Amino acid sequence: ICYFPSVKHSPVSNPSVNIMSGKYVVMNETNAYVLYFQNSMNLPPDKARLLRQYDNEKKWDLICDQERFQVKNPPHTYIQKLRGYLDPGVTRKKFRRRVQESTKVLRELEISLRTNHIGWVREFLNDENRGLDVLVEYLSFAQCAVMLDFEGLENGEDGFLDKAKSWSRSIEDLHHMSTQPFCNTLVRSARQSVLRYVLKTIKNSRLVSQKDDVHVCIMCLRAIMNYQYGFNMVMSHAHAVNEIALSLNNKNSRTKALVLELLAAVCLVRGGHEIILSAFDNFKEVCKEKQRFERLMDYFRSEEGNIDFMVACMQFINIVVHSVEDMNFRVHLQFEFTKLGLDDYLEKCKHTESDKLSVQIQAYLDNVFDVGGLLEDAETKNAALEKVEELEEHLSHVTEKLLEVENETMMKVADLEKLLLQKDKDLQTIRETYESTNTQVNTLRRMIKEKDAAFQRHFNIEKRLLELEQQGTIRLHKKPDGDIAIEPLGAGSIGLGIPLGDISQLSLGSTAGLIEPGAADPSLPPASEAPPPPPPPPPPPPPLAPVPPPPPPLAPPLPEASPSVILSLGLSAIRIKKPIKTKFRLPVFNWTALKPNQINGTVFNEIDDERVLEELDLERFEELFKTRAQGPVVDLSCTKSKVSQKAANKVTLLDANRSKNLAITLRKANKTTEEICKAIEKFDLKALPVDFVECLMRFLPTEAEVKVLRQYERERRPLDQLAEEDRFMLLFSKIERLTQRMNIITFVGNFADNVNMLTPQLNAIIAASGSVKSSPKLKRMLEIILALGNYMNSSKRGCVYGFKLQSLDLLLDTKSTDRKMTLLHYIALIVKEKYPELANFYNELHFVDKAAAVSLENVLLDVRELGKGMDLIRRECSLHDHSVLKDFVQASDTQLDKLQKDAKAAEEAFNNVVNYFGESLKTTPPSVFFPVFVRFIKAYKDALEENEQRKKQEEAMREKLLAQEAKQHDPKVQAQKKRHQQQELIAELRRRQAKDHRPVYEGKDGTIEDIITGGPDSSLKTPHTGASSSGCPRSRMTVVIHCSAPLKCTLCYVVQTPAQLEHST
């Protein structure tokens, strides 16, 4: 409810008009009222912005509602009544009559402070009314009877005066501020008058103390502190917090619990902890305590029957001790309560039946610092750090050794791959030779067979002719031209002779009596080609030479042709794949397919994806990856140096900056000009480090500098007058073929490093290329991917024969129907279930991660540059006799030759593997090709791990459901549930650790109320992280705040402590 002033105080221009009398007001006046309401209600910026956005009708309704509300009493009404209770001149009878309604007045004041607008509260606290001073004064007056032992007045005046002085000091708060009116009277008046005055005041206080005035006063102060303005005034007041702390002496346990809750809330506000400790210092002196918090502990021990007070007290102790940042100070506060017997008492109360108190006690014990344990932990930590340092050093050595072994292994693998590559070449040559020889052998066999058949025919004809001649049927005679003629004998015979050479013109079947029926009809060769007739009996034909058997195969037979592709017959032999019909609609796998004419000679020419489909459970696959019925198909897809001053008589011919930089470079060599030039002429790398030579390369003399130096020399001017840098440049420029010499020195100095740098990169390319190409398991994995991709895409895009390797990255983009599994997860699952031998396919892919970081183009360029550098040195050796260069060439020639061979082998191996996978050499360098496999392997391993986690979660859920079903039928469950509530609450408090620092509250509007009641912005509703000293790792500790009635709630306050200081309790 917000306070709205009367019309005469309104900001409207015409105050005589009552806003309730009509429905219409001018726009400006309406906005003026709204602005006034905004300021009076103390709205936060977001609420004020919302109020300004209301339309005019809603604003008008708000104005009318506010006009209906009027504050019952202005602030000065309550202040006057409170001052009347404090008036020492009032008679006893009159005071009794007035004090009857003091509690009611205070309750109305508390409601007004809590519900009225901020302007009312400010008016109550302004300099004119000084409401806070009056309220604190009344609080002090209301509890002075409790502070003093009234019965001690009968024992003597001296003891009473001492106690009166102590009570007076409680009002003055040891700050020597202005004293109360009756205290000033106590100082100025005579001894007897003081006694009478104090006696009367204490008697009046005794009447007040029997009521709830102290409790309601604390409620009023709490309402004031809920506003930022009021909180700041209370915190800066000389006596307010001290009087609140002194209210712990009240006999009402509910009041003491309220005081402790308010003080605990102040502890959590910035700067509040110091003020609370100062108030208890004052409490100690006023109440004559030997130790701080002594009376608080007495109350804690004596109120065993009041659980609410004990919970509030334990909550306050927990916050006071464990809400400070300084660890040493926290231990100090903890020790204060230990000396007062808190630890022993908590041990006694630890098994209390109250869950709230038990949680508070456990929270304190969880936060306790065991200094002895900390010392042991520190010693253990130091020993552990030494051990860690030792292990790190050992790990460094092991890492270096591992790197050496890895390089050696990679070199051996590369050598083996090079040998394998050479053997493959030799094998290919042998195969070609074998095929050529085999063709020739087959041709020769066919020719021999044809010759043998012809010879046999000739032999049979000659034999028959001889038989006919012996029978007298024919006669053979030689003609003049040398041919043999056949002359038939008999009456019906033809008189003319038939030459033997024309016998082939006759059909043996038509020659009467010459050829037996059923004989063959071969053609006779010409007479000139026929062998001479053998003498009878004719000898058998000579046996033919045996044909040697074909050589054994030189290589294992090629794999069987797939049903889709018949190998070695070209594109025309590729069988068109049939479309696959799926039961459900599946998402599209957006791979980049290879054309049918691109798969010849690639890995996809050797795999059979249709065979894989026959082995897989495709119904399960469709059930996992089917698209949702209600949705469309988703297509997933150089520090400056101070230069020494030159002498005035030195001549400088070079540019100033160049001369300065040259001077810096020359100082690095720490040699004279003559020594440097001599070392360059002799190619002496022992005298000149390579780094220095590379620096000197930047100072090769230009033509202009040479011209100026030569001019200076022609003028025969003394060289000692030149600056040191100019003199060096003069001698430096006189070296013959300076640029060539410098290049040679740089080349020689860096040669070994370049070879050592390039060799592992080439070995990585060779080893990775060979392992990827020769991996049978990788081939099977691609076969599975091709099969599943064709199954998903067949109905929409048709089957393909291969795909680009970049499509492997898209396996994670194709997800199942419930979006919990990707295609790669499914592949990992079926590999584990049906093809377990392929689960570690990545073990066959060696050094792909190292090859992925190699720029082969740059490496080959560097190797060519090394070859050019070596040619330059050879020309230098041929022209000039340099023993240093000759020794270098002799020692390094073999290394360079091996490096060049490795470079050629690496390039060839990489080209082969790229072509083998159907990729383009122009667009697929090693930095693109090998990372595909690196990412695929990593994603596959992650998929395996996630599949295992999902399986464990499903098993845990299944076991949990079974356990819950079993518990429902277990009669002991309900009894155990109540027993475990406390442990579950503590465990929950410990789990809620979210922040890394203790939130410090600012004294803003509503802060105190939020802290105490657990408002929306209070960290007391959620675990609260305590502060630790700078640089310390943090651990957790818990404080639980219990709010008294009528709130009926439990709040959590968690303090963070350094992990190394945590000690189990």
TrEMBL record:
<feature type="coiled-coil region">
    <location>
        <begin position="937"/>
        <end position="992"/>
    </location>
</feature>
<dbReference type="InterPro" id="IPR010472">
    <property type="entry name" value="FH3_dom"/>
</dbReference>
<feature type="domain" description="GBD/FH3">
    <location>
        <begin position="22"/>
        <end position="452"/>
    </location>
</feature>
<dbReference type="GO" id="GO:0005829">
    <property type="term" value="C:cytosol"/>
</dbReference>
<feature type="domain" description="FH2">
    <location>
        <begin position="576"/>
        <end position="966"/>
    </location>
</feature>
<dbReference type="GO" id="GO:0008360">
    <property type="term" value="P:regulation of cell shape"/>
</dbReference>
<dbReference type="InterPro" id="IPR016024">
    <property type="entry name" value="ARM-type_fold"/>
</dbReference>
<dbReference type="Pfam" id="PF02181">
    <property type="entry name" value="FH2"/>
</dbReference>
<dbReference type="InterPro" id="IPR042201">
    <property type="entry name" value="FH2_Formin_sf"/>
</dbReference>
<dbReference type="GO" id="GO:0016477">
    <property type="term" value="P:cell migration"/>
</dbReference>
<dbReference type="GO" id="GO:0051015">
    <property type="term" value="F:actin filament binding"/>
</dbReference>
<keyword id="KW-0175">Coiled coil</keyword>
<dbReference type="InterPro" id="IPR043592">
    <property type="entry name" value="FMNL_animal"/>
</dbReference>
<comment type="similarity">
    <text>Belongs to the formin homology family.</text>
</comment>
<dbReference type="Pfam" id="PF06367">
    <property type="entry name" value="Drf_FH3"/>
</dbReference>
<feature type="region of interest" description="Disordered">
    <location>
        <begin position="1006"/>
        <end position="1033"/>
    </location>
</feature>
<dbReference type="GO" id="GO:0031267">
    <property type="term" value="F:small GTPase binding"/>
</dbReference>
<feature type="region of interest" description="Disordered">
    <location>
        <begin position="514"/>
        <end position="556"/>
    </location>
</feature>
<feature type="compositionally biased region" description="Pro residues">
    <location>
        <begin position="523"/>
        <end position="556"/>
    </location>
</feature>
<dbReference type="Pfam" id="PF06371">
    <property type="entry name" value="Drf_GBD"/>
</dbReference>
<feature type="coiled-coil region">
    <location>
        <begin position="381"/>
        <end position="408"/>
    </location>
</feature>
<dbReference type="InterPro" id="IPR011989">
    <property type="entry name" value="ARM-like"/>
</dbReference>
<dbReference type="InterPro" id="IPR015425">
    <property type="entry name" value="FH2_Formin"/>
</dbReference>
<dbReference type="GO" id="GO:0030866">
    <property type="term" value="P:cortical actin cytoskeleton organization"/>
</dbReference>
<protein>
    <recommendedName>
        <fullName>Formin-like 3</fullName>
    </recommendedName>
</protein>
<dbReference type="InterPro" id="IPR010473">
    <property type="entry name" value="GTPase-bd"/>
</dbReference>
<dbReference type="InterPro" id="IPR014768">
    <property type="entry name" value="GBD/FH3_dom"/>
</dbReference>
<feature type="compositionally biased region" description="Polar residues">
    <location>
        <begin position="1019"/>
        <end position="1032"/>
    </location>
</feature>
